[in-house]
């Protein structure tokens, strides 16, 4: 037997309707906020992620599926959705259209991480990217969209953590202060953070290692370093969220693992799915479009991990109704009746009514069992007596009620 590669999963029919529900909700909520779908390729030139996600990130350094194609080009399977969307925005001249451009996507992503519950090597994201607006009201709207989606799929007890990591200028000052502080504690830091200290000290702030957590508790806080403009932007975001009734906690340690962010960053975190509790992450990325060769266009967005959403729904006992139930199952009692069953099924399907019938020559008892298994709402029994009288028996599977119905009614 050949197994699926480590960190990947099959989605079987017993679960696929749950995916469909989450994806349908994502589409409905995105459309409610005026976003249209964008689909970008599964793979991009590696350069897109080097420039987009950033060369100092864990994603680019350790987690990308990168290979040379037969033409010798370096290709990478997308580890996230934003960089590809930004590349498409620039390449297709979308900034010449009316701004803001409001986009959403549902896509698979690939990261070579150590698999565990809620962490896969192939996973799926529902993402939002709003491009072209700098006002803090679009930050609030982006977060509102994420919250509306989480509410609509049925997620409760989730905490929104909010922070501002300032602009390039304020971050420079902060990074120096942080570096100075961390350098004094370097001996106690984990090996990874020792490396991060030089290249990307902000990342030390969200290290999960207990020693690093202890050290960062007393580290300088970014919010003490942000400039007046960044500060008033952040205050406006908080004010609008308060007006909208969205609860949040300001957490100066939320820095996000991708290099493109500036100003507003946020995460929705749940306590109900173990270590990988971040269900949704996002923020503002005003320099990304320019970094990818476009003009100076602002951006903000987020992505939700669909696997984590489904895990959370499962763990909190939220039931998703399977909508794919068969309306009628036709149970013929012999060869002649089987032909009639075929005719009825054809007619029902032509009318757009879901219907199925016996393909296995099962006994009538076994057919009822099967109808029950596939969740048929009604079973139509056709025996020779029924055929002679030009009628069939229709049994409601829930109430058990039976009714004789003329064959002409189908
Ligand atoms: P991210 O935080 O790297 O952000 O990923 C977003 C979400 O994808 C996470 O919160 C998590 O639910 C899910 N996720 C990430 N890695 C895995 C994994 N290995 N297995 C399962 N689920 C995972 C981004 O990707 C940004 N592009 C979000 C964004 C969009 N920022 C602005 N626009």
How would you describe this structure to a colleague?
- By secondary structure, this protein is an alpha+beta fold.
- Helix content is 38%, strand content 21%.
- The protein contains 14 helices and 16 strands.
- It has helices spanning 13-32, 46-52, 58-63, 82-91, 136-153, 168-183, 191-199, 210-217, 228-244, 288-291, 306-315, 335-350, 364-373, 384-388, and strands at 36-37, 43-45, 66-68, 74-77, 101-110, 122-131, 158-164, 249-250, 262-270, 278-284, 299-305, 328-332, 355-357, 378-382, 391-396, 402-406.
- An eight-stranded mixed beta sheet has the order 1-5-6-11-10-9-7-8.
- The radius of gyration is 27 Å and the shape is elongated.
- The two termini are 46 Å apart.
- The site of histidyl-adenosine monophosphate (HAM) has 27 residues, from strand 6, strand 10, strand 11 and helix 11.
Give the total of beta strands: 16
What is the helix tally?
14
Unique ligands: histidyl-adenosine monophosphate
Structural class: alpha+beta
Strands of the widest sheet, in order across it, are 1-5-6-11-10-9-7-8
What fraction of residues sit in β-strands? 15-25%
Identify the overall geometry: elongated
Helix content: 25-40%
What Rg, in angstroms, do the CA atoms define?
A: 27 Å
Oligomer: single chain
Order of helices and strands: HEEHHEEHEEHEHHHHEEEHEHEHEHEHEE
Low-confidence stretches: none
**Major β-sheet, in short?**
8 strands, mixed
The pLDDT mean sits at 95
End-to-end distance, in Å? 46 Å
């Amino acid at each position: 037997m050949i197994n699926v590669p480590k960190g990947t999963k099959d989605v079987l029919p017993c679960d696929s309707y749950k995916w469909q529900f989450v994806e349908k909700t994502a589409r409905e909520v995105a459309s409610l906020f005026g976003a249209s779908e964008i689909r970008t390729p599964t793979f991009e030139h590696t350069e897109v992620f080097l420039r987009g996600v950033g060369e100092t990130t864990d994603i680019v350094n350790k987690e990308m599926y990168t290979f040379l194609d037969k033409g010798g080009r370096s290709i990478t399977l997308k580890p996230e959705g934003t960089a590809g969307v930004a590349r498409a925005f620039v390449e297709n001249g979308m900034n010449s259209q009316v701004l803001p451009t409001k986009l959403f996507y549902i896509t698979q992503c690939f990261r070579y991480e150590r698999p565990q519950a809620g962490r896969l090597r192939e996973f799926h994201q529902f993402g939002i990217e709003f491009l072209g607006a700098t006002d803090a009201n679009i930050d609030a709207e982006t977060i509102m969209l994420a919250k509306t989606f989480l509410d609509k799929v049925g997620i409760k007890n989730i905490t929104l953590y909010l922070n501002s990591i300032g602009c390039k200028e304020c971050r420079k000052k902060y990074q120096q202060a942080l570096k100075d502080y961390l350098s004094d504690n370097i001996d106690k830091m984990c090996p990874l953070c020792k490396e991060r200290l030089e290249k990307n000290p902000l990342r030390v702030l969200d290290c999960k290692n207990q020693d690093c957590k202890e050290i960062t508790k007393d580290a300088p806080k970014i919010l003490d370093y942000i400039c007046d403009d960044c500060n008033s932007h952040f205050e406006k975001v908080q004010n609008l969220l308060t007006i909208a009734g969205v609860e949040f906690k300001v957490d100066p340690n939320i820095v996000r693992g991708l290099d493109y962010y500036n100003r507003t960053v946020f995460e929705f975190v749940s306590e109900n799915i173990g270590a990988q509790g971040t269900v949704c992450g996002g923020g503002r990325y005003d320099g990304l479009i320019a970094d990818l060769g476009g003009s100076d266009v602002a951006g903000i967005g987020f992505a939700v991990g669909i696997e984590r959403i489904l895990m959370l729904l499962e763990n909190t006992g939220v039931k998703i109704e399977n909508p794919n139930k068969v309306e009628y199952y036709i149970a013929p009692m012999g060869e002649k009746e089987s032909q009639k069953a075929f005719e009825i099924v054809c007619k029902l399907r032509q009318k757009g009514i879901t219907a199925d019938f016996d393909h296995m020559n099962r006994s009538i008892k076994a057919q009822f069992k099967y109808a029950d298994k596939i969740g048929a709402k009604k079973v139509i029994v056709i025996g020779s007596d029924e055929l002679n009288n030009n009628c069939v028996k229709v049994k409601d599977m829930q109430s058990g009620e039976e009714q004789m119905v003329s064959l002409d009614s189908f």
